[in-house]
User: What shape does this take?
Amino acid sequence: MLSAESTGNGTIVDDLFARFGAGLFVVQPTVDNTPTLWVAAGELLEVLSFLKPHYPMLYDLFGIDERQREHRSGLPAADFAVVYHLLSLKPVAEIRIKVSVIEPEGEVPTAIGIWPNANWYEREAWDMFGIRFSGHPNLRRILLPPTWEGHALRKEHPARATEMEPFSLSEERQEYEQEALRFRPEECGMETASADTEYMFLNLGPNHPSVHGVFRIALQLDGEVVVDAVPDIGYHHRGAEKMGERQTWHSYIPYTDRIDYLGGVMNNLAYLQAVETLAGIEVPPRAKVIRIMLAELFRISSHLVFYGTFAQDLGQMSPVFYMFADRERLFGIVEAITGARMHPAWFRIGGVWQDLPEGWDKMVREFIDFMPARLDDYDKMAMQNSILKQRCVGIGSYSAQEAIDWGITGPSLRATGVDFDLRRDRPYGGYDQFEFEVPTANNGDCYDRAVVRVEEIRQSLRIIRQCLDNMPEGLYKSEHKLTTPPPQEATLHDIETLIHHFLSVSWGPVMPAGEASSLIEATKGINSYHLVSDGGTTSYRTRIRTPSFPALQQIPLISRGLMIPDLIAILASIDFVMADVDR
Amino acid sequence: MSETTATIIFALVVLLGAVSAAAVLTWFERRLLGIWQDRYGPNRLGPLGIFQVLADMLKLLTKHDWVPPFSDRVVFVFAPTALVVAMMMGFAVVPFSETLYIIDIDIGLLFFLGMTSLAVYAVLLGGLASNNKYALLGGLRSAAQMVSYEVFMGLSLMGVVMLTGSFSLQAIVLAQVDGWYCFSQILGLYVFLIAGIAESHRLPFDLPEAEHELTAGFHTEYSGMKFAMFMLGEYLGLILISCMITTLFFGGWLGPDWLPGLFWFSLKTFFFICFFILLRAAIPRPRYDQLMSLGWKVLLPITLLNLVITGALALSLQGAS
Assistant: This one.
């Protein structure tokens, strides 16, 4: 189920060649050493079906505008590329399949038949690039409003407001836009009445206390029973991927903080690991441990918000206040170390901004000594509460197979019993030096999703304690020439170092051309940035794969036949952030 | 001064007192919850923030008195009024002390039950008249919830009536001179407590409102003064239920002689108000069908069992005397 046989990366490509013939493929070298193969659209589905037993999860699917890319010698002609990023959990392995699309007729067959979660990803690729997927049942816009003109991630689409006409909202335009937002059941193939009842359609959101941001679910209701649900996203879309094509490699860091806005520096890590792979930077040990400590602090912070709002959405009023108070203590530490609270943007290409301040260890120690007792209290208060259990146990459950089919990762996957954590199974950024358990649960219901996260808080505390006790001495920033900004000691000595410093700060560093992504176990699941460098000071394409996106796509599957309060419990338990979904 | 005039004046005093108490409760509840939850609550205006009450009232009174154009106007305005009136009428039969009461009628307890039942209409009509889907769901929930809990609420009190042999609340208080009913009627008290919360639809049984599910349930469309009346009705209900628990199970105004009965009555009532507020802070909200099945499968049998036991007890006592 996790992976049929243990085919190593080297051999799966050989297997493909043996099965389909090597002439069918073009192998693209990548900096991150993930096998990347171009295949013709005609053979795509066969190749994907062949790979599915080895790589059971469609981890990501996205487009790339290839038209202005300069460094693409040896690659097939393409206006656009569609990338299928597949993941095997045991052993952890990835592969990318790329398909070329030539305008204007180019089409790609839909992969929904192989992976159900291809649905939203293909819609996104259509929305952003205008790539058509033949056979897709519902190829509509997903992130941008239905009235949008053009496809935003195409290179010719304006990236800044100043490149467009000044915006004004006339009354007719407003009417038109509002009308476009109206939910029409027939568009989603929904009946308005059954043989013996007339359904009620309820717009839950975009503004609703329990949808954690701006998220709309159109519900088809029979009384209070949810017959079907249609999640509607995009209200929080900010064009983060488009911004990545304008910002320098360095100045994009603060934008990443705001993707999973509860994850803080955890986002920096996912982004910077990909940048550092492109640049070939090896981060010094002290910087690694500092990064891990901060990332785990933010994992706790994010899980505390989850824990509190989870209880709150089930009608329990108090826990959220206690947990926010704890989070406040935690932010005190983050503030002392980084100078900011929720969005520190503190990691840098090649390390972190500054060394740890004096007295950091005392603050961290106080916090990790203090937390376990609080967690015990919360356990009694919330998790052991019989009403809360009644509301959650057996509600909104999915199997391990379903989770993998829908691209669910992180705690929500572990709640189904899949023992998979990147930090342990393919350690990145120094996690191989740490001891911790990977909590799992068995039923994959709302309760188990919460149990796993609560236990993860304890494990994170354990990791932080190890950071505290074993903080290595040494550099907090690499001495690599692409480290940005360069270490202070290495600058301003002579004209060479002065110019180097000036260029890397004003224009930004130039990354060698190539493609790389680096998966990390973020707070809500696996997060990664697929970066394409065309040898410039900005990224050619920034693709952000977030764990919240697939979780929302799966909501209808697990909420059918339940009641509205159960749907709220499900929303509370899957721990999503709309900024993480819409980017 | 004739007795009638005195009664009218006293009735006005009770009404004013109840409304002011409800107003102060809005502040008290927030402060109490604040302390309980590691935060302050409103503490800026006046000593301990007590003037927050005035500020809130001023805000609500001066708000645009808006009736949604798609609603059923007459019913929409009538609903919150009905709630407040019904709750206030309930105070008519409460014995505040041996001498302080508006009226002591033979069917006092039934009158109280009748008035709280009227409150169902207010919530139901408010939900229906709003012509809003969330409000409709809230109204439906309240109809189901309050109608079923009405049953247990009435039945849970019959044990008290059997032991006293009267529906008069004053008589019930006097019958507790030798021992409060909270001991002999422990099952009745248990059911009445739960039904009381359900009846005043406060967390954990605030399903008609359930802000995490139905945004604000039956009063989603209400604002300004009409919203304030719903809130007033809720707090009056809270006070009334606390008064009734005191009266029916904790000896009403009975207490040591060195302080007046009114003091003991207020003290006990205050205790139960605090209890209800803190309960709100502690417990999550069950699902609507779970609440129903709790009612019919657990509370109803307990109530019936209580009736049988109390009946047997009352008969044996009669036989003994």
